[in-house]
Amino acid sequence: NYLLYPKLQKVVLACAIFFGGTIGGLMLSGAQSLSSFYIGFLATSFLTYFFLPKILKWKVSWNFK
């Protein structure tokens, strides 16, 4: 497990996907059109949904001595 509270894993992933999608939608739309926001939101959410669990499972070693 990669979370401090494993029971909250689904909630954390859902929130991360939602906020990642929102940021992606805002970056793509640039406050110009609603359709480009939705396209960016869906594309970023889709990518986050597939890659976030894989990224969170990576073990990070800082190698401090």
From TrEMBL:
Keyword field: Membrane, Transmembrane, Transmembrane helix
Entry's transmembrane regions: 12-31, 37-56
Protein's name according to its UniProt entry: ABC transporter permease
Organism of provenance: Bacillus cereus
